[in-house]
Amino acid sequence: MMNKLYNWIDERLDITPLWRDVADHEVPEHVNPAHHFSAFVYCFGGLTFFLVMIQILSGVFLTMYYVPDIVNAYASVDYLQYKVEFGDIVRGMHHWGASLVIVMMFLHTLRVFFTGAYKAPREMNWVVGVLIFAVILGLGFTGYLLPWDNKALFATKVGIEIASAVPFIGDLLREFLQGGDIVGAQTLTRFFALHVFILPAALLGLLAAHFIMIRRQGISGPL
Amino acid sequence: MSEHTTNHQSTDEHPKAKKREMSRRQFLNYTLGGTGGFLIGIPLVWNLRFAIDPLLQAKASSNLVKTIEESAVTTTPTAVKFKISQVDGWYYSEPELEAWVARGADGKIYALSPTCKHLGCTVSWAPEGRASNEFFCPCHGARYTVDGKELAVASAPLDEYQVELQDGYVYLGPIKANTRV
Fold first, then answer.
1. Exposed site from A12, A35, A83, B122, fewest CB < 10 Å?
2. What sign has the CA pseudo-torsion B42, B48, B51, B56?
3. Taking CB atoms and an 8 Å limit, are B90 and A78 in contact across chains?
């Protein structure tokens, strides 16, 4: 049944090469944990990507209940966590996953650094990776404010204070992030926009560039 | 997924002619596919259950609300406003509802919902410039009798509120289908 359906579509759209390209792509022995167990360090990038997918999945569903408004934000998070079935799990995935993404991404960065994989001809991919690092940190920072509890409020005050210490443009940066004179209603809405639209779009674009480059250039050789 | 068992029509004659075999490729397909499916499926199931929660939550039941005195009710429908407590997720409010309360020809007190059965606008009793003995809806001109029976445009009679009489007062409850026509 599934075979017939697949063949019917494949005859018309020739979709086999699309996944064959991924499935038949050989994994070099020195990065395959089945050959050398220590090669598990080469899995960190893929694991980071898996966690990012989990973040997108749980984040999309969280927006079904969440409102980015200073009156209702905390109440809606409280409601979705304690009144909605599996709310603690879905929010838990997003909450703990956020920290794990940063941990895995850091480990992946260390692996690339200590295997020297950033060297020519892969310098551009390192730069894109650093941009991804910044975007992920931005997602973590903007997402932290959204529950609108005390921890969120003061962490954001501290973060914006740090941003305002940037020479010359610090004050502008603070006002851009705050959307006003205080961390308040306008900060929450713009952090929401950054967190669910702007930064994820940037992240997906950068990830596409990251993956296209690794396919084009191949994985760096053994140590 | 390709067929991995070898079907034999005449197994009775040659019971051990063919063994059920699984190739290394099929074994890997199943184990890796199963693990991958588990990793993707479980989070997806959690999220979907989370998403459909409103469908599965217990429906709120509304209480009776005390309104006007029984003696104030006449045969002409009167608009009666009353407040109910409403829980909408994390939002608690007391919206004001309206009922057209009247005493029917049979002497029983009834209360009609003002929500038009055509497309949900709000009807009123005998507005200026309209028939003096009908409910009228301004959106598409639906009309109803004093008992809420549809006369034009709408295809169903106006709903009723549940009515209870206690200590000389009219109490209104949840909405139910019209019982008068």
1. A12
2. negative
3. yes
